[in-house]
Amino acid sequence: MKVYHHINEIKPLDFAVATTGTFDGVHVGHRTILKRLIETAKKNNGESALFTFNPHPRMVLQPDLDLNLINSLEEKAELLKECGLDHLVIHPFTKEFSRTSSLEFVRNILVKNIGVKKLVIGYDHHFGRNREGSFEHLKEFGPVYGFDVEEIPAQDVDHIKVSSTKIRKALLEGEIDTANKYLTRPYRLTGFVVKGEQLGRQIGFPTANLNLDDPKKLIPKNGVYAVLVRIDGSDKQHRAMCNIGMRPTVSGKTKTIEINMFDFSLDIYGTKLTVFFKQRIRDEQKFESVEKLKAQLILDEAKCRSILS
User: Fold this and answer.
1) Which of 42, 213, 242, 294 lies 20 to 30 angstroms, CA to CA, from 106?
2) Which pTM was predicted?
């Protein structure tokens, strides 16, 4: 997959089958679009292309929203590559760019720069200034600029239309099972191991404190989770439990992401980890004493081992 960080970096393709959107999460709905996109490109001896943005448009247009994302840019690119996409254009999103009309977007970006011959979009997709562009606009523009357009119906899981917004909501409410079902894979966080207060080590549960590599990455609801951990440079996944929260029993003052890896004793300070969330087992809670916290952690570990076995 070729990656471009500005629309001017890509040269028009001979036969581009393209789509556009933020694709945060690369969820089941996105994957249906991508599958159709890639199949159509292969059928026509063409190439598949996605035009997306960085940062997320809502971060620019609604800065007070404090939006956090399902994927970092690196994760999104990795997932799109796994899907088999040929070209990924990540264009800088600015207030100036937001004033691009739907006609200019189609004529200058999709047709002139990318060379689109077929356009595949999701249900109810909008684009251009004030989201003025729609499927109906594209059907009008197609014959004028020489491309066909296909709209993919919304994808349902258990009769619920999947969206990035619904996945973010599920994660913030601790509904990991729902989020993972919509994503078709475990939600993940990536970061580097930093030194903490080493309180866990004192009670027999040493933890790796994770400092996220993307500050805008969405952190699931506080609580205890059964997780799998991959150390950078290795394909092996280690069983673990993860606590997200304020550590009220020991009067913690900041939110931490702490991972206790089972049957593991190596020094991994400074190492990059990816944490895959499998199941949420309980809320974070304040215990009357460190001894009672330790007793609960023993139960938590047993439950996580059972889930991950």
Assistant:
1) 42
2) 0.93
